[in-house]
What does this fold into?
Amino acid sequence: MLQGKAHKFGDSISTDHIIPGRYAHLRSNLPELAKHVLEDADVNFVKKVKPGDFVVGGNNFGLGSSREHAPLVIKMAGVSAILAKSVARIFFRNAINLGLPVLICDTDKINEGDELEIDLTAGTVRDKTNGNMLTTGKIPEVMLKILNEGGLIPYIQKHGDIKV
Amino acid sequence: MGKTITEKILSEKSGTDAKAGDIVIARVDLTFVQDTTGPLTVRQYQTSGMGKLTNAQRTVLFIDHAAPSPNANLSNDHILLRDFSTQSGCILSEAGDGVCHQIVAEAYARPGDVVVGADSHTVTAGGLGAFATGMGSSDVAVAMGLGKNWFRVPETFKIEVTGDFQKGVYPKDLILHLIGQIGADGATYKSLEFSGSAVKKMSMSSRFTIANMAVEAGAKVGLFAADETTQKYLKAEGRSNDYKPLAADADATYEKTIKIDAQKLEPTVSKPHTVDNTALARELKGTKIQQVVIGTCTNGRLEDLVVAAGILKGKKTAKTVRLIIAPASRKILLEAIEKGYIKTLVESGAMILPPGCGPCLGVHMGALGDGEACLSTANRNFEGRMGNPKSFIYLGSPATAAASALKGEITDPREVM
It folds into this structure.
């Protein structure tokens, strides 16, 4: 069971919003890079976010670049899951590969600052602030296996191979 | 039942009868990274304990996004890539050689290949019939180490283009129009397969431009059949043996078909801050710009420089505009020098950057100031993309870019042709 506060963002949050190219020189210095997470979408996010919190987006979250640093810095900020109405393909796979769950649900029903409780196994999001209960979309089996191992690299370390 | 190009390639590479919706393990023929995703890939690779690369001669590290490096941190990332190349025996493409996607097209990708690159615009190689898709560092590390990865076989949208392009209208306008029509998430997880009489007549350069931007509609791949044009291209690159014909079956199943009449298209521009926010260039007349960029993996090929030089020949760019040209590869730059296009462009007021990504992603060279606007031939106009969240990026064809550089404002190229 995951618990935390919702940090709301709009539609089309791109990988450039999450971690823009002007910080490319910090990509081998992850603690410094992570200080700029989502800076171009909400300059105060990094100060507000607490361990366990959730990033809640709208449509097409994470569109753009293949930079795995985008979900990586969100994870480093302590975020325990990303919720969105829809998510871009590469970002989705990258987040799961880092052991960061991405859940598809109707995020219009969640407000900024709401306290959420997420049951990954049941696929539900309970908004404790407004009482709404949301159902999340299914994650494909192969991705669940990767997620359950904590990401793709831990999965490979354990199994030495990839199977579907 | 007939197959799409996607299903044919993934069937062959997975050894299964792959159909849309299946999840398969497919062999990967080519893996690559670039200098902003490569260092993480190398670290993930080393952490994974996978040992030797499956095929070092089909693994390429490109230094193109920050080339030459603007600071010590990125220089150190470049050292990391050079060292990994030396240790592992894989290929290194140095600063100044060009953008990964252009060199993959020129030298590596083959029709029917599965290509996995740690860069979203890996889709470019779909122009020559490769199932080429962008992935993150961990996924590419796995493909490098195991020679395979898992793929969901995407459903396919058939994009059928007929009719002839009007003067001043280009394949870039077509792909911007399509993305404007279906939206930046209109093809998420899907394959786009381009066909029709206008596509058959299209040059490889044009096919690469269109395939390059498939990801801007959310697509996993943008595919073209491999035909006589592909064969001629590979022959000219000294790769005749890499050719094999490839096309969808006549009875292939598509999720949907979108028909476009090229004759009806006009010069199209994406407005800030999303690619699907399109308008006609003529509707934006009067929009002042301070910078124009012609280049990138989308439109930095010789054909693009020829169009720009044709418009700028004997003329001067507006005093209020900086015109930046970044050829996509060393080969293109050399050819543009030999044929006099670089001279024409420099005389008109352009500055020439080394082959590479140039100002496209805001890492170096050509960052925008507060409130400034740029017309670029690149593929993305996200907020903050070119180094400053307080700036504005418009996307258009090389012709629209050159015409806009002359006038200092967004200009329909037909006004100056």
